[in-house]
Amino acid sequence: MTQLTTSLEIKGLQDEATERVLTPEALQFLEGLHRTFNERRKELLKAREERQQQLDAGGKLDFLEETKAIREGDWTVAELPKDLQDRRVEITGPVDRKMVINALNSGAKLFMACFEDATAPTWHNMIHGQINMYDAIRKTISFTQSETGKTYQLNEEVAVLQIRPRGWHLLEKHVEVDGEPMSGGLFDFGLYFFHNAKELLARGSGPYFYLPKLEHYLEARLWNDVFRYAQETLGVPQGSIRATVLIETIPAAFQMDEILYELREHSAGLNCGRWDYIFSYIKRLRNQPDVILPDRSQVTMTSPFMRAYTLLAIKTCHKRNAPAMGGMAAQIPIKGDEEANAAAFDKVREDKRREVTDGHDGTWVAHPALVAVALEEFNEYMTEPNQIARKRDDVEVTAEGLVEVPTGSITENGLRVNCSVGVQYIASWLRGNGAAPINHLMEDAATAEISRTQVWQWIRHPEGKLEDGRKITGELVDQVLEEELQKLQQQFGKDVYDTGRFEEAAGLFRRLVLNDDFIEFLTVPGYDQLEEVTDHESTES
Ligand SMILES: CC(=O)SCCNC(=O)CCNC(=O)[C@H](O)C(C)(C)COP(=O)(O)OP(=O)(O)OC[C@H]1O[C@@H](n2cnc3c(N)ncnc32)[C@H](O)[C@@H]1OP(=O)(O)O
Ligand SMILES: O=CC(=O)O
Question: Quick check: is 501 in a domain?
Answer without folding.
Answer: yes
